[in-house]
Amino acid sequence: MKSEGINRDHQKERNVSLLIRMIHADPECSRAKLSKKTGLGQATVTKLIGQLIDWGVVYEREILDTSKGRKPIRLKLRSDRFLLGAVRLARNYATAGL
């Protein structure tokens, strides 16, 4: 039972990392676009983006213009406040990114 929680936490970390990378790579990024490109459910994307906004990592920009439907809100990383870095250590390798 405990290993399921660890796997769930690991998956959440991977999803958050994926969303951050996607927002960084796409200046026209919105929640709907993230859901479509990543394959994550809309509720999952909304929840994780909400956490990133609460942590001050992501903020909402202007509303993007579309021809129909609900207008998507553009997302952007708060690069003015944070420098992101990560290290992953494993038995056979170590990776780092900045």
Structural class: alpha+beta
* Net shape: globular
Give the radius of gyration: 15 Å
What is the terminal separation in angstroms?
34 Å
Secondary structure: helix percent: 40-55%
Query: Tally the helices: what do you get?
Result: 3
Mean pLDDT: 86
Spatial arrangement of strands, main beta sheet: 1-2
Strand content: 15-25%
Task: State the order of secondary-structure elements, H for helix, E for strand.
Answer: HHHEEEE
Q: Give a quick account of the main beta sheet: strands, pairing sense, barrel closure.
A: 2 strands, antiparallel
Parts with pLDDT < 50 across at least 5 consecutive residues: none
User: What's the β-strand tally?
Assistant: 4
SSE order and pairing:
Elements: H1 2-25, H2 31-38, H3 42-54, E1 58-63, E2 73-77, E3 86-89, E4 94-97
Antiparallel strand pairs: 1-2, 3-4
Helix pairs in contact: 1-3, 2-3
What can you see in these coordinates?
With 98 residues, the chain is α+β, with helices and mostly antiparallel strands. Helix content is 46%, strand content 19%. A two-stranded antiparallel ribbon has the order 1-2. A two-stranded antiparallel sheet has the order 3-4. The mean pLDDT is 86. It contains 3 helices and 4 strands, in the order αααββββ. α1 (2-25) packs across α3 (42-54) and α2 (31-38) packs across α3 (42-54). The longest helix has 24 residues, at 2-25.
